[in-house]
Hints:
alpha/beta; five-stranded mixed sheet
Amino acid sequence: MLVLGIETSCDETGVALVEDGRRVRSNVLADQQTLHARYGGVVPEIASRAHVDLLHPAVEQACALGGARLSDVDAVAVTIGPGLAGSLLVGVAAAKAYALALDRPLLGVNHLVAHVYANVLDHGTLPLPAVVFVVSGGHTSLLAMDADGGFRGLGQTIDDAAGEAYDKVARVLGLGYPGGPVVDRLARDGDPAAVRFPRALLDDGSDDFSFSGLKTAVLRHVRAAGPDLNVADVAASFQEAVVDVQISKVVGVAKREGLDTVLLGGGVAANSRLRARLAAEADALGLRLLIPSPALCTDNGAMVACAGSFALERGEHTPLDVGADPNLHIVPGFGRRAPRRPKRRR
Length: 346
Protein backbone atom coordinates (compact mmCIF):
# COMPACT_ATOMS: atom_id res chain seq x y z
CA MET A 1 0.00 0.00 0.00
CA LEU A 2 1.54 3.28 -1.15
CA VAL A 3 0.17 6.54 0.26
CA LEU A 4 0.94 10.05 -0.96
CA GLY A 5 1.09 12.49 1.96
CA ILE A 6 0.62 16.26 1.59
CA GLU A 7 1.33 18.73 4.39
CA THR A 8 0.70 22.48 4.01
CA SER A 9 -0.61 23.55 7.41
CA CYS A 10 1.81 26.45 7.88
CA ASP A 11 4.96 27.52 6.02
CA GLU A 12 6.43 24.19 4.92
CA THR A 13 5.35 22.32 1.81
CA GLY A 14 5.79 18.65 2.62
CA VAL A 15 5.13 15.77 0.21
CA ALA A 16 6.05 12.13 0.80
CA LEU A 17 5.46 8.58 -0.33
CA VAL A 18 5.11 6.03 2.47
CA GLU A 19 4.74 2.32 1.86
CA ASP A 20 2.68 0.13 4.21
CA GLY A 21 2.52 2.92 6.77
CA ARG A 22 6.13 2.48 7.85
CA ARG A 23 8.65 2.66 5.01
CA VAL A 24 9.44 6.17 3.77
CA ARG A 25 10.07 5.97 0.04
CA SER A 26 10.54 9.75 -0.27
CA ASN A 27 10.08 12.79 1.92
CA VAL A 28 10.35 16.16 0.18
CA LEU A 29 10.24 19.38 2.19
CA ALA A 30 10.31 22.90 0.78
CA ASP A 31 10.48 25.41 3.62
CA GLN A 32 9.79 29.13 3.34
CA GLN A 33 11.99 30.47 6.13
CA THR A 34 13.81 32.93 3.88
CA LEU A 35 10.46 34.35 2.74
CA HIS A 36 9.24 35.04 6.27
CA ALA A 37 12.49 35.85 8.12
CA ARG A 38 12.36 39.55 7.23
CA TYR A 39 8.96 39.82 8.94
CA GLY A 40 9.98 37.97 12.11
CA GLY A 41 7.26 35.34 11.67
CA VAL A 42 5.00 33.60 9.19
CA VAL A 43 2.89 35.86 6.96
CA PRO A 44 -0.21 33.76 6.07
CA GLU A 45 -0.80 35.26 2.62
CA ILE A 46 2.83 34.78 1.60
CA ALA A 47 2.75 31.21 2.91
CA SER A 48 -0.35 30.20 0.97
CA ARG A 49 0.94 31.74 -2.29
CA ALA A 50 4.26 29.92 -1.88
CA HIS A 51 2.43 26.60 -1.41
CA VAL A 52 0.70 27.14 -4.75
CA ASP A 53 4.10 27.48 -6.45
CA LEU A 54 5.85 24.69 -4.56
CA LEU A 55 3.31 21.91 -4.18
CA HIS A 56 3.12 20.32 -7.62
CA PRO A 57 6.91 20.34 -8.16
CA ALA A 58 7.25 18.74 -4.70
CA VAL A 59 4.81 15.98 -5.72
CA GLU A 60 6.80 15.34 -8.90
CA GLN A 61 10.05 15.23 -6.93
CA ALA A 62 8.58 12.88 -4.31
CA CYS A 63 7.49 10.47 -7.03
CA ALA A 64 10.88 10.62 -8.74
CA LEU A 65 12.80 10.03 -5.51
CA GLY A 66 10.39 7.29 -4.45
CA GLY A 67 10.69 5.45 -7.74
CA ALA A 68 6.95 5.61 -8.38
CA ARG A 69 4.42 7.17 -10.69
CA LEU A 70 1.31 8.93 -9.46
CA SER A 71 -0.74 6.05 -10.84
CA ASP A 72 1.05 3.73 -8.37
CA VAL A 73 -0.42 5.60 -5.40
CA ASP A 74 -3.19 3.74 -3.51
CA ALA A 75 -4.49 6.74 -1.53
CA VAL A 76 -3.91 10.46 -0.98
CA ALA A 77 -3.55 11.75 2.59
CA VAL A 78 -3.61 15.45 3.40
CA THR A 79 -3.58 17.66 6.47
CA ILE A 80 -7.03 19.24 6.84
CA GLY A 81 -6.29 21.10 10.09
CA PRO A 82 -5.39 22.71 12.35
CA GLY A 83 -3.25 25.39 10.74
CA LEU A 84 -3.38 28.53 8.63
CA ALA A 85 -6.60 28.67 6.62
CA GLY A 86 -5.06 29.69 3.32
CA SER A 87 -2.19 27.22 3.57
CA LEU A 88 -4.52 24.37 4.42
CA LEU A 89 -6.82 25.21 1.51
CA VAL A 90 -3.98 24.87 -0.99
CA GLY A 91 -3.06 21.39 0.21
CA VAL A 92 -6.65 20.18 0.55
CA ALA A 93 -7.61 21.42 -2.92
CA ALA A 94 -4.58 19.77 -4.48
CA ALA A 95 -5.16 16.49 -2.63
CA LYS A 96 -8.78 16.41 -3.79
CA ALA A 97 -7.66 16.96 -7.38
CA TYR A 98 -5.12 14.15 -7.20
CA ALA A 99 -7.57 11.77 -5.53
CA LEU A 100 -10.30 12.53 -8.06
CA ALA A 101 -8.01 12.30 -11.10
CA LEU A 102 -6.46 9.03 -9.90
CA ASP A 103 -9.75 7.60 -8.58
CA ARG A 104 -8.11 6.94 -5.22
CA PRO A 105 -9.40 7.38 -1.66
CA LEU A 106 -8.87 10.74 0.06
CA LEU A 107 -7.72 10.64 3.68
CA GLY A 108 -8.08 13.81 5.75
CA VAL A 109 -5.52 13.88 8.58
CA ASN A 110 -5.36 15.92 11.78
CA HIS A 111 -1.99 17.68 11.86
CA LEU A 112 -1.42 16.93 15.55
CA VAL A 113 -2.29 13.25 15.15
CA ALA A 114 0.21 13.09 12.29
CA HIS A 115 2.95 14.36 14.63
CA VAL A 116 2.20 11.46 16.97
CA TYR A 117 2.34 8.91 14.14
CA ALA A 118 5.76 10.23 13.09
CA ASN A 119 7.03 7.92 15.84
CA VAL A 120 5.92 4.90 13.82
CA LEU A 121 8.32 5.81 11.02
CA ASP A 122 11.29 5.66 13.42
CA HIS A 123 10.19 3.16 16.06
CA GLY A 124 7.56 0.87 14.51
CA THR A 125 4.23 -0.02 16.10
CA LEU A 126 3.23 2.37 18.88
CA PRO A 127 3.22 0.76 22.35
CA LEU A 128 -0.21 1.81 23.57
CA PRO A 129 -1.70 3.11 25.82
CA ALA A 130 0.63 6.06 26.28
CA VAL A 131 1.04 9.65 27.37
CA VAL A 132 1.26 11.93 24.33
CA PHE A 133 2.96 15.34 24.37
CA VAL A 134 2.58 17.39 21.18
CA VAL A 135 4.66 20.54 21.41
CA SER A 136 5.17 22.91 18.50
CA GLY A 137 5.04 26.51 17.35
CA GLY A 138 1.29 26.74 17.78
CA HIS A 139 0.40 23.87 20.09
CA THR A 140 1.29 22.53 23.51
CA SER A 141 -1.03 19.60 24.19
CA LEU A 142 -0.81 16.85 26.77
CA LEU A 143 -3.02 13.82 26.05
CA ALA A 144 -3.58 10.16 26.80
CA MET A 145 -3.75 7.76 23.84
CA ASP A 146 -5.64 4.51 24.41
CA ALA A 147 -4.97 1.04 23.00
CA ASP A 148 -7.31 1.67 20.06
CA GLY A 149 -5.59 4.90 19.05
CA GLY A 150 -8.18 7.23 20.56
CA PHE A 151 -7.18 10.39 22.41
CA ARG A 152 -8.24 11.98 25.69
CA GLY A 153 -7.30 15.59 26.37
CA LEU A 154 -5.51 16.34 29.64
CA GLY A 155 -3.70 19.67 29.47
CA GLN A 156 -2.84 22.49 27.09
CA THR A 157 -1.40 25.98 27.00
CA ILE A 158 -3.54 28.77 28.38
CA ASP A 159 -1.63 31.42 26.42
CA ASP A 160 1.53 31.09 24.31
CA ALA A 161 2.57 27.70 23.00
CA ALA A 162 6.17 26.72 23.76
CA GLY A 163 7.26 27.33 20.18
CA GLU A 164 5.68 30.79 20.22
CA ALA A 165 7.61 31.61 23.38
CA TYR A 166 10.88 30.54 21.75
CA ASP A 167 10.21 32.75 18.72
CA LYS A 168 9.28 35.77 20.84
CA VAL A 169 12.28 35.40 23.14
CA ALA A 170 14.55 35.03 20.11
CA ARG A 171 13.14 38.30 18.80
CA VAL A 172 13.84 40.02 22.15
CA LEU A 173 17.42 38.72 22.02
CA GLY A 174 17.87 39.79 18.41
CA LEU A 175 18.38 36.24 17.16
CA GLY A 176 15.98 36.31 14.21
CA TYR A 177 13.35 33.85 13.01
CA PRO A 178 12.71 30.98 13.50
CA GLY A 179 13.71 31.22 17.14
CA GLY A 180 13.61 27.66 18.42
CA PRO A 181 16.70 26.20 16.73
CA VAL A 182 18.90 29.25 17.33
CA VAL A 183 17.94 29.54 21.02
CA ASP A 184 18.64 25.83 21.42
CA ARG A 185 22.09 26.14 19.85
CA LEU A 186 23.01 29.27 21.79
CA ALA A 187 21.83 27.77 25.09
CA ARG A 188 24.51 25.08 24.87
CA ASP A 189 27.12 27.76 25.57
CA GLY A 190 25.19 29.35 28.43
CA ASP A 191 24.55 28.66 32.11
CA PRO A 192 20.99 27.38 32.68
CA ALA A 193 21.18 28.51 36.31
CA ALA A 194 22.37 32.05 35.54
CA VAL A 195 18.89 33.59 35.76
CA ARG A 196 16.03 32.12 37.78
CA PHE A 197 13.09 32.74 35.47
CA PRO A 198 9.53 31.85 36.65
CA ARG A 199 8.05 28.37 36.14
CA ALA A 200 4.35 29.13 35.73
CA LEU A 201 1.78 26.52 36.85
CA LEU A 202 4.59 24.21 37.93
CA ASP A 203 2.94 23.17 41.19
CA ASP A 204 -0.68 24.20 40.63
CA GLY A 205 -1.99 20.63 40.30
CA SER A 206 -3.21 21.11 36.74
CA ASP A 207 -1.93 19.68 33.46
CA ASP A 208 -1.97 23.08 31.73
CA PHE A 209 0.93 25.22 30.58
CA SER A 210 1.62 28.95 30.51
CA PHE A 211 4.63 30.61 28.88
CA SER A 212 3.47 34.18 28.41
CA GLY A 213 4.75 35.33 31.81
CA LEU A 214 8.11 33.69 31.17
CA LYS A 215 8.44 35.61 27.90
CA THR A 216 7.71 38.86 29.74
CA ALA A 217 10.24 38.02 32.45
CA VAL A 218 12.93 37.55 29.78
CA LEU A 219 12.04 40.92 28.23
CA ARG A 220 12.32 42.69 31.60
CA HIS A 221 15.66 41.02 32.34
CA VAL A 222 17.07 42.02 28.96
CA ARG A 223 16.02 45.65 29.45
CA ALA A 224 17.47 45.75 32.97
CA ALA A 225 20.78 44.11 31.98
CA GLY A 226 21.55 46.57 29.19
CA PRO A 227 25.06 46.22 27.73
CA ASP A 228 26.03 43.65 30.39
CA LEU A 229 23.58 41.12 28.95
CA ASN A 230 24.94 37.61 28.45
CA VAL A 231 22.73 36.33 25.64
CA ALA A 232 23.84 32.70 25.95
CA ASP A 233 23.05 32.65 29.68
CA VAL A 234 19.60 34.15 29.08
CA ALA A 235 18.87 31.62 26.32
CA ALA A 236 19.97 28.73 28.52
CA SER A 237 18.03 29.98 31.55
CA PHE A 238 14.89 30.58 29.50
CA GLN A 239 15.10 27.13 27.93
CA GLU A 240 15.65 25.50 31.31
CA ALA A 241 12.49 27.13 32.66
CA VAL A 242 10.47 25.83 29.71
CA VAL A 243 11.88 22.31 29.98
CA ASP A 244 11.42 22.16 33.76
CA VAL A 245 7.68 22.73 33.37
CA GLN A 246 7.35 20.37 30.41
CA ILE A 247 9.06 17.49 32.17
CA SER A 248 7.16 18.04 35.40
CA LYS A 249 3.80 17.93 33.63
CA VAL A 250 4.61 14.96 31.38
CA VAL A 251 6.08 12.83 34.16
CA GLY A 252 3.29 13.81 36.53
CA VAL A 253 0.63 12.65 34.07
CA ALA A 254 2.45 9.38 33.42
CA LYS A 255 2.54 8.62 37.15
CA ARG A 256 -1.07 9.63 37.76
CA GLU A 257 -2.46 7.75 34.77
CA GLY A 258 -0.32 4.67 35.42
CA LEU A 259 1.16 4.74 31.90
CA ASP A 260 4.71 3.59 31.20
CA THR A 261 5.10 4.98 27.67
CA VAL A 262 5.55 8.61 26.59
CA LEU A 263 5.22 9.69 22.95
CA LEU A 264 6.54 13.09 21.84
CA GLY A 265 5.77 14.92 18.63
CA GLY A 266 5.93 18.37 17.07
CA GLY A 267 8.66 20.80 16.08
CA VAL A 268 9.75 21.64 19.63
CA ALA A 269 10.29 17.91 20.26
CA ALA A 270 13.49 18.43 18.25
CA ASN A 271 14.85 20.62 21.07
CA SER A 272 18.05 19.01 22.32
CA ARG A 273 17.59 19.99 25.99
CA LEU A 274 14.04 18.62 26.15
CA ARG A 275 15.11 15.37 24.48
CA ALA A 276 18.13 14.85 26.73
CA ARG A 277 16.50 15.70 30.03
CA LEU A 278 13.26 13.81 29.34
CA ALA A 279 15.26 10.77 28.23
CA ALA A 280 17.24 10.85 31.48
CA GLU A 281 14.08 11.28 33.56
CA ALA A 282 12.29 8.49 31.71
CA ASP A 283 15.25 6.16 32.18
CA ALA A 284 15.36 6.90 35.90
CA LEU A 285 11.65 6.19 36.29
CA GLY A 286 11.51 3.15 34.01
CA LEU A 287 9.38 4.90 31.38
CA ARG A 288 9.60 4.07 27.69
CA LEU A 289 10.16 7.28 25.70
CA LEU A 290 9.65 7.55 21.94
CA ILE A 291 10.67 10.71 20.07
CA PRO A 292 10.85 11.04 16.29
CA SER A 293 14.18 11.92 14.73
CA PRO A 294 14.60 15.71 14.44
CA ALA A 295 13.83 15.63 10.70
CA LEU A 296 10.45 14.04 11.42
CA CYS A 297 9.61 16.40 14.30
CA THR A 298 9.12 19.34 11.96
CA ASP A 299 6.09 19.44 9.65
CA ASN A 300 6.49 16.90 6.85
CA GLY A 301 4.48 14.83 4.41
CA ALA A 302 5.75 11.47 5.68
CA MET A 303 3.95 11.77 9.01
CA VAL A 304 0.72 12.66 7.16
CA ALA A 305 1.08 9.67 4.85
CA CYS A 306 1.77 7.42 7.85
CA ALA A 307 -1.31 8.61 9.76
CA GLY A 308 -3.35 8.29 6.58
CA SER A 309 -2.14 4.72 6.06
CA PHE A 310 -3.44 3.67 9.46
CA ALA A 311 -6.75 5.42 8.78
CA LEU A 312 -7.02 3.49 5.52
CA GLU A 313 -6.30 0.22 7.34
CA ARG A 314 -9.23 1.02 9.65
CA GLY A 315 -11.44 1.44 6.60
CA GLU A 316 -11.73 5.21 6.88
CA HIS A 317 -12.26 7.41 3.82
CA THR A 318 -12.79 11.17 3.68
CA PRO A 319 -15.48 12.60 1.36
CA LEU A 320 -14.32 14.92 -1.41
CA ASP A 321 -16.44 17.76 -0.05
CA VAL A 322 -14.37 17.93 3.16
CA GLY A 323 -13.22 21.42 4.06
CA ALA A 324 -10.06 22.72 5.65
CA ASP A 325 -10.53 23.39 9.36
CA PRO A 326 -7.98 25.82 10.87
CA ASN A 327 -9.32 25.05 14.38
CA LEU A 328 -9.60 21.27 14.09
CA HIS A 329 -9.30 19.62 17.51
CA ILE A 330 -7.47 16.41 18.28
CA VAL A 331 -10.29 15.64 20.73
CA PRO A 332 -13.77 17.20 20.32
CA GLY A 333 -13.92 20.22 22.61
CA PHE A 334 -10.22 20.01 23.45
CA GLY A 335 -7.46 21.99 21.80
CA ARG A 336 -8.93 25.44 22.05
CA ARG A 337 -6.87 27.52 24.39
CA ALA A 338 -8.24 27.40 27.89
CA PRO A 339 -9.60 30.69 29.25
CA ARG A 340 -7.13 32.73 31.21
CA ARG A 341 -7.53 32.40 34.93
CA PRO A 342 -8.82 35.60 36.56
CA LYS A 343 -6.27 37.52 38.55
CA ARG A 344 -6.70 37.49 42.29
CA ARG A 345 -7.75 40.77 43.80
CA ARG A 346 -5.37 42.15 46.37
